[in-house]
């Protein structure tokens, strides 16, 4: 167990790093964050030490890690070389580099799910226009995605099945790709779980999520779910956590197809669909992650109050005064500047009645 006063390093300087740093401070830890323009970033506003630098500057990454007692990250697109530089510094990286690699490449991620007997939609490896033409003939309506770096609906194209494959690939860019069959789902669910270094696992309740333009718009905890659905989600998350010898918080997103869950993707970090655990649960996802990477015991993550979270995207954050005046709303703003379209600026949490 790291004692209070130890330094937890965070790769990434956005809102997730900001909330992780706040959770670490609650437990008496110091934090340091690393990333571009760190001193002017959301995380840089609340950390003890903000280090500005490129993730490709491996000497700077090693120096940063050497000054920390453990290093974690707030987003899964940390370059593999950056993760390796942390390991070479002699300081632990949690979650480990294998978890990072598995989650940042969609074909590898889907293949991992299948290898662990976790159901997914059908998918095809796409490297050429001929690959796409052949796959579309089998898949029909489907979604083409870049294998790396896409998020919040970016790096994706919905296809009907009769498109010019070469033109589609040229328009989307970012190859190679993965083609995924459409899932006839009724709703989207996510489960957030944490694993400690000694193998203990704690689960949050399922969240039900609604997306708009590829970005999470609303999330509710706890989702109305049968024991069978909850068991499917927990078993899938536990298989991934155990296989990867994972330490920290992991999120797995699912399609619910008539009560049968299909894993869509995973995130090796705290997650947008778990922000309301701060207000709803016995422990937040942020504190649970800090506890795990610091070697502290995990806490029971039971839901104490059903809550729903509304993402404030772009100009929605301009309504901050009205939101702050609503006695039922707990408002969190990320300290960002311009409210650009599609940019997550904050979130609002309020009670709701679960069925």
Please provide a written account of the structure.
It is a single chain. It is built from eleven helices and 17 strands. The protein is of the alpha+beta class and 355 residues long. The protein folds into three domains: 7-93, Rossmann fold (3-Layer(aba) Sandwich), CATH 3.40.50.20; 122-181, 2-Layer Sandwich (Dna Ligase, domain 1); 187-351, ATP-grasp fold, B domain (D-amino Acid Aminotransferase, Chain A, domain 1, 2-Layer Sandwich), CATH 3.30.470.20. The strands form three sheets. Strands 9, 10, 11, 12, 13, 14, 15, 16 and 17 form a nine-stranded antiparallel β-sheet that branches. A four-stranded parallel β-sheet has the order 3-2-1-4, sandwiched between helices. Strand 13 and strand 14 form a beta hairpin. Helix 1 (15-26) crosses helix 10. It is globular, with a radius of gyration of 20 Å. The two termini are 40 Å apart. The model has no long low-confidence stretch (mean pLDDT 95).
Write the layout of secondary structure elements.
Layout: E1 7-11, H1 15-26, E2 30-35, E3 49-52, H2 58-66, E4 70-73, H3 80-88, H4 97-103, H5 106-115, E5 123-126, H6 129-139, E6 142-146, E7 156-159, H7 165-172, E8 177-181, E9 187-195, E10 201-203, E11 207-212, E12 215-221, H8 227-243, E13 248-257, E14 260-267, H9 277-280, H10 285-293, E15 307-313, H11 320-325, E16 330-333, E17 344-351
Parallel strand pairs: 1-2, 1-4, 2-3
Antiparallel strand pairs: 5-8, 6-7, 6-8, 9-10, 9-11, 9-13, 11-12, 12-15, 13-14, 15-17, 16-17
Helix pairs in contact: 1-10, 2-3
């Amino acid at each position: 167990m790291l004692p209070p006063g130890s330094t937890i390093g965070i790769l990434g300087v956005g809102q997730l790093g900001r909330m992780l740093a706040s959770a670490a401070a609650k437990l008496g830890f110091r934090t340091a964050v690393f990333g571009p323009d760190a001193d002017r970033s959301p995380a840089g506003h609340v950390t003890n030490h903000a280090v500005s630098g490129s993730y490709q500057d491996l000497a700077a990454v090693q120096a940063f890690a050497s000054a920390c007692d453990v290093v974690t990250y707030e987003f899964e697109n940390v370059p593999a070389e950056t993760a390796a530089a942390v390991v070479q510094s002699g300081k632990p990286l949690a979650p480990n580099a294998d978890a990072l690699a598995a989650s940042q490449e969609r074909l590898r991620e889907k293949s991992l799910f299948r290898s662990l007997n976790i159901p997914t939609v059908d998918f095809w490896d796409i490297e050429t226009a001929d690959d796409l033409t052949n796959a579309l003939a089998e898949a029909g309506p489907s979604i083409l995605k870049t294998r790396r770096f896409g998020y919040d609906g970016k790096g994706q194209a919905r296809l009907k099945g009769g498109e010019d494959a070469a033109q589609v690939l040229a328009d989307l860019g970012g190859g190679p790709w993965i083609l995924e069959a459409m899932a006839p789902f009724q709703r989207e669910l996510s489960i957030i779980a944490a694993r400690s270094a000694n193998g203990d696992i704690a689960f949050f309740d399922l969240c039900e999520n609604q997306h708009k333009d590829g970005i999470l718009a609303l999330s509710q905890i706890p989702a109305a779910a049968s024991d069978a659905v909850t068991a499917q989600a927990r078993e899938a998350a536990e298989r991934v956590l155990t296989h990867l010898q994972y330490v920290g918080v992991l999120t797995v997103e699912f399609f619910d197809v008539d009560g049968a869950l299909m894993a869509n993707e995973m995130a090796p970090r705290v997650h947008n669909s778990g922000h309301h655990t701060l207000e709803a649960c016995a422990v937040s996802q942020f504190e649970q992650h800090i506890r795990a990477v610091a070697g502290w015991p995990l806490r029971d993550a039971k839901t104490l109050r059903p809550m729903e979270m509304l993402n404030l995207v772009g100009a929605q954050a301009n309504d901050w005064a009205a939101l702050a005046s609503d006695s039922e709303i707990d408002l969190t703003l990320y300290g960002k500047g311009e409210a650009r379209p599609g940019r997550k600026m904050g979130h609002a949490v309020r009670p709701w009645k679960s069925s």
